[in-house]
Amino acid sequence: MMKALKVVLSLIIGFTMNAVTLGASPSGVSQSVVDKVEAQYSKTKDLQADFTQETLFDGFETGFSSSGKLYLKKPGLLRWDYLEPSKEQIYVDGDQVLMYVPDHQQVVKGTLTQLAASKGPLALLQDAGTLSQHFSVVDASSEDRGNKKIPVLTLVPKSTGEKPPTLKKIVLKLSPDSFLIQEITLFEASGNVSRVAFDHIQVNQGVSARLLQFEVPSDVVVVEMPALR
Fold first, then answer.
1. pLDDT in tens, 90-131
2. Contact, 176 vs 147, CB < 8 A?
3. Model confidence, pTM
4. Can you tell me whether residue 220 is helix, strand or coil?
């Protein structure tokens, strides 16, 4: 669950930090879609949206669902508020992460590097590369939704010669009007599938940096985040 969340956060921040270059595309149609995504996110300074997240674990018939609110501001500030089924706040500032669970009176402190499922998204966070260095666009299609066609991009991680990638592929569904990301689905090598859908997306509304910064309450316990393997 946390690995999937880490990749989602990294991709979102990576898209909004600078113009995204997705690299060689399989067709002129997909290149056109990529160009429109780049144009939109290159001018995105801040973003807020509602989200729903569903994770289906391999071998289990039922999954886990949650929902909440997302706030993002360049460069690299993000607040991810889970509101249902329980409250939890996640703050990202560059590579630093604070996870606040009010019911537990606890703050978990760590870094995105500790949560790394792959180095690709982290390179984007650290402004050391672009998505094209780590992922290839293998398919560009569309999905009928009402009277509109939703652009769909399928990405696969490039081989790095390091450990086998924990992600098999990522599917992005885009707004047909703005080409903002409406849905991200992560297909993990383990068989787990995580989907995050965004709604009521607002761009460049002047999100305050103060809203995305967290001061640890004096009455909570701060613990270090264990590294995930």
1. 888 877 888 898 888 899 888 876 655 443 333 333 332 345
2. no
3. 0.80
4. coil
Sketch the domain layout of the chain as residue ranges. Answer: 2-224
Alpha-carbon distance of 227 to 112, in angstroms, equals 10
DSSP 59: T
**Distance between CA atoms of residues 33 and 149, nearest Å:** 13
DSSP string for residues in 152-196: EEEEEEPP-SSSPPSEEEEEEEE-TTT--EEEEEEEETTS-EEEE
* Token code pair at residue 97: 């992460």
CATH for the 2-224 domain, from 2.50.20.10, 3.30.70.20, 2.60.40.10, 2.40.110.10:
2.50.20.10
Three-class DSSP category at 217: coil
Q: Which pairs with CB-CB distance under 8 Å and at least 24 residues apart come from 9-12?
A: 9/78, 9/80, 9/90, 9/92, 9/112, 10/112, 10/121, 10/122, 10/124, 10/125, 11/121, 11/124, 11/170, 11/184, 12/70, 12/72, 12/78, 12/181, 12/184
User: What is residue 131's predicted lDDT score, i.e. its pLDDT?
Assistant: 52
Q: How confident is residue 181, by pLDDT bands cut at 50, 70 and 90?
A: confident
Length of the chain: 229
